[in-house]
Design a protein that fits this description.
The chain is of the alpha+beta class and 188 residues long. The protein has two helices and 13 strands, in the order ββββββαββββββαβ. It folds into two domains: 9-80, Ribosomal protein L6 (Outer Surface Protein A, domain 3); 83-169, Ribosomal protein L6 (Outer Surface Protein A, domain 3, Alpha-Beta Complex), CATH 3.90.930. Helices cover 19% and strands 36% of the residues.
Amino acid sequence: MSRIGNQPIALPKGVEVSRNNGQIRVKGPKGTLERALPQEMQIVVEDARVLVQRPTDSKEHRALHGLTRTLLANMVRGVSEGYMKELEVHGIGYRAQMQGKNLYMQVGHSHGVEVIPRPGVEFEVGQETNTRLFVIKVKGIDKEVVGQQAAEIRAVRKPEPYKGKGLRYRGEQIRRKAGKSAKGGKGK
């Protein structure tokens, strides 16, 4: 029995779910998402909630049950609230700024790096006053696209373990290394 798959998905006001030809369409105040979900799963819309039901108790259907429900719940949340990932820019001289809709960063390379947003994604850059830390916000309605875009930005300059410089997710803990110690001399 799938614990996740059996949970109903509450539909907020203004969110509609429809299915045609294997495509699920979720429409809400922030936009519309479409996705191909497994044909075997039955999606029932009743009152202000959605239920996902599986046809049999086979291993494959049990696996698809929870997956289908989670993907559908992510779509509903995306069109009603949206998703956001925050990244922090750590390092002296490291900075981020907006150039139109694109993100421009100076993060220790010999040149600046420009990141063009994927369709449905927008960037926002702010600076914390106390720490002079730049914060990049990646926003959108599709959870996968927002997460992938944030991962691509982080990959421009991953945090290094000695000083912790680089791009990291907000709240991410970097395991620090000690570095070289000054024990002993050369040539002994």
